[in-house]
Amino acid sequence: MTVHEKSAWIMTFALLVGGIFYGLTVAAMSSGLGMIAPPVLPTVLIYTIILIIIAIVGHILAATSSPADANEVVDERQRRIADKAGHLSAYVLGIGVLSALGLYLLTYNGNLMFYVLFASWMLSQLLEYVMQIVLHRQGVY
Amino acid sequence: MSKSLPFANRVRELRELHGPMTQTDLGKAVGVTRQTIAAIEVGKYSPSLESAFRIARVFGVGIEDVFFWTG
After folding, report:
1. Is domain B7-58 classified as CATH 3.90.850.10?
2. Nearest chain A CA: its distance from B15 CA (Å)
C-alpha cells in the first residue's frame, strides 16, 4: 500500500468520525429546540480539531510504520488517481452548492442552507478519498 | 471500474531477465513508485508514453518489445 493510499484511508476515517460527531450533535441540538438548530462555531471547531488530530496522528503512525516510503514522491499514477477522484468530488460539491442555493430560494432558511453546504463539502471530501482508495485497488487507466 | 487494457506487457519478464531487477529498482530508474511498476505489470495501470519509453530504455529494447497490442 502506498503512502498516498494510507493517507486516503486515514482521511476517510477522520471524515467519517468527524461527520458522525457533527451529525449527531446537530441532531441532538435540533431535537432539543424542536427545529433545525442554528450552526454554532464550537461544534464546527470541535469537528475541525477531530479532523486535524486524526490526520496528524494517523500520518505519524503511517510514516513510522514504513519510514522508507514516508517521503515517497507523487508519481504519474498518483496524480492520475488524484485528478480522477477530485473530478468526481467536484461534481458532488457543485450539485450540493446548487441544491443549497435552490433550497434557500424555496425556504429562506439560512440554517438549512449552511447544513446542506457543509454536508456537501463533507460528502465531496469523503467521496474523493474513497475514490482514491478504489482507484488504487482497482486500477486507473 | 475494473476493465482490461487492450495491450499487454513483458515488464515482469524483462525485469527478471535483467538481474533480476526489483520493482523498486525499475521504479527508481523510471521515476515512479514500486507500486506503479506493480500496477503496470498486472495491467492495472497504463503508463504514460514517456514512462513506457523510459521502461524500454532501461531494458535496452524498443517500446514494442515491452508493450504489445492484444485488443
Report:
1. no
2. 20
